[in-house]
Amino acid sequence: MSRRIKIFDTTLRDGEQSPGVNLNIKEKLIIAKKLEGLKVDVIEAGFPMASKGDFESVLKISQEIKESTIAALCRAVKKDIDLAYESIKNSNSGRIHTFIATSPIHMKYKLNMSEDQVIENAIEAVKYSKKFCNDVEFSAEDAYRSNIKFLIKIFEEVIKAGATVINIPDTVGYAIPKFYGDFIKEIISNTKGIENVDVSVHCHNDLGMATANSIEGILSGASQIECAINGLGERAGNTALEEVVMAIETRKKDLNIYTAVNTKGIWGISKAISSITGIQVQPNKAIVGENAFVHESGIHQDGVLKEKSTYEIVTPESIGKINNNNLVLGKHSGRHAFDNYLRNNGITLSAEELEEAFLKFKKMTDKKKNISYKEIEAIVNSNTTDLKETYKLISYQVYSGNKMICTTTVEIEKNNKILIESAVGDGPVSSAFKAIERTIGKKVRLKDYSIKSITDGDDSLGEVIVKIEENNKIFVGSSLSGDVMEASINAFINAINKMIDSLN
Ligand code: KIV
Ligand code: ZN
């Protein structure tokens, strides 16, 4: 019989630990809803002890998400566990995920604890968590570099104490598939009681082996994979959800395993997460890279035209990627046609999301007659949060040229008041940003600015992503427009509004 593998998504916890990623509650909730739509089994919503914002987002996600289990991470410390429980206690299905490091390096240098002390803490933590919640996951941090006999001992003890899931992370991405598989097998064969719990794999990608290690772990008897969309996570990231899920889907007959993930949602969620985090995936990234389904050489193109399976083992449709740029909507298309168009292309939105996407679409058609599928997809997946718009662009004017001083004037609304400022700069974008800084009365630290066209062709929409820094936190702003100056100004204002929102 085929074995169901559980998918534990940690985009909102380990993924958020990616350098330069800082999500607000609204963005986390949008992502959680998309993960629920993707039908992942568990959403690790955050680490409540890490910050007030983390606690509040786990709390909010727990209240709103009904289908997936919500996990909250905590150290093996009572006050962390209390807070983790507080954040998930209203969920339909909640999990306390407690961890302590078990490798000699971590125990000596980080914890300054002996093996006996670590075991004692782990047992205490699981017993304490069990008072509140039946579903308790125990992670042995840096498990792969731990002494296996010690690991088996600690796992036996925490299972006796009531743990329902045992996680065996390769925290620093040191494993090689064959060795990781053997490691998992040895633990499963020698740990008393392990047959009654889920065994989980959590792999980091430092050597580029996270997906291979996770699959090897599953084939060696594990039943849960911890992963993140687009492989986000600490350093080189975590196992990419889209890769393990599609590897299992593509080879399910040979591997005799399956997941419950709705693979058709993969492309959309990957795009949405790139837009929200400002981290684009590389073009040749497996499954969700722009080139993942592009056939460049003549021989390949000829083969695919004759029979797709000559060079395609995964179809774009199976991950919800529609390649139809001939389908366009225009100025006269109404809400109903827009909704139908999305549905026919496998995109279903909630009433709110539809309204927001439709308004954006309509705004685009003021300037651009026809909007292609790729552009509509970008509109739908663009960073949409019900963010309080402290500042709003009304108009701008630019005087620019290579032999003149660039000047931009911006007209911006704040609390129903119109503010007008001008500034000069080295180029149009820099003068516009300086004019905005004058409007808000503050110098902003610009960390990154990027622009890309959504389709080929000179009338394509452009997407601008701007990152700014305040108090060591990064705020990502983005905007889409047929006019790149407008997109640049709006992306900068969007990042500033997020920064202000985080202070309130
Ligand atoms: O990589 C790791 O070990 C972790 C644990 C906290 C599960 O993220
Ligand atoms: Zn991790």
Strand content: 15-25%
N- and C-termini, Cα separation: 53 Å
Number of helices: 17
CATH fold node name of the largest domain: TIM Barrel
Kindly give the count of domains.
4
Across the major sheet, the strand order is: 2-3-4-5-6-7-8-9
Percent range of helical residues = 40-55%
**CATH C-level of the largest domain:** Alpha Beta
Shape: globular
Please identify which CATH superfamily of the largest domain we are dealing with. Answer: Aldolase class I
* Rg estimate, integer Å: 25 Å
Distinct compounds present? 3-methyl-2-oxobutanoic acid, zinc ion
Set down the secondary structure blueprint.
Blueprint: E1 3-4, E2 6-9, H1 25-38, E3 42-46, H2 52-64, E4 69-75, H3 78-88, E5 94-101, H4 104-111, H5 115-132, E6 136-141, H6 148-161, E7 165-170, H7 177-190, E8 198-203, H8 210-219, E9 224-227, H9 241-250, H10 252-255, E10 257-258, H11 266-277, H12 298-306, E11 328-330, H13 335-344, H14 351-367, E12 370-372, H15 373-381, E13 392-399, E14 406-414, E15 417-425, H16 428-440, E16 445-453, E17 462-470, E18 473-481, H17 484-503
Parallel strand pairs: 1-10, 2-3, 2-9, 3-4, 4-5, 5-6, 6-7, 7-8, 8-9
Antiparallel strand pairs: 11-12, 13-14, 14-15, 16-17, 17-18
The structure holds 3-methyl-2-oxobutanoic acid and zinc ion.
Zinc ion (ZN) is lined by residues 14, 169, 171, 202, 204, 234.
